[in-house]
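Attaching the record inline, Q. Sequence:
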Amino acid sequence: MLINALIYTLECGFDALIQSTGNIKNNQIGFSLIQFMLLPVAYMLYSHGASVYSITIVNIILSVCVILFHCYILQKQTNFTYLEYFSCTIYPAIKVFIVIVGLIILLRYVIKIDNIIVSVLLKSIMAVSSMSFSICYIGLNKIERGLYHKGIQKDEW
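Structure, as predicted:
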């Protein structure tokens, strides 16, 4: 469920945009069919001896299919383009993910402290700071970074 929630954040606002066009029938039918596909696929996988976590993998794949379907609907109804969405949303998210996972793996093997509380506290601080740094300087473009810095300077939080 957490992985699906993270995947669905990549399409935040798509539903509202599709519904604002007034043509929601195709969206609802397609979304329902994609979500319903989990049941027969899960049944087939279980009946052939697949493990329980295989359903999670199928659910992740179907979540990506929902995003692609929403992109298709948006492209038909608005001036939305796949290329712009992937270059402005997906590609920066993948870059940040790779950097964060790399840093976390590095932290896991570099920091060896016997005291568990100190180790967890130190690793947590380093993980949050590296996440913030990578999101700000890798995930955001120059204009977004400028808006972020203006917001910090004005204390508009």
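The mean pLDDT is 83. The chain is about 80% helix and 0% strand.

More tomorrow.
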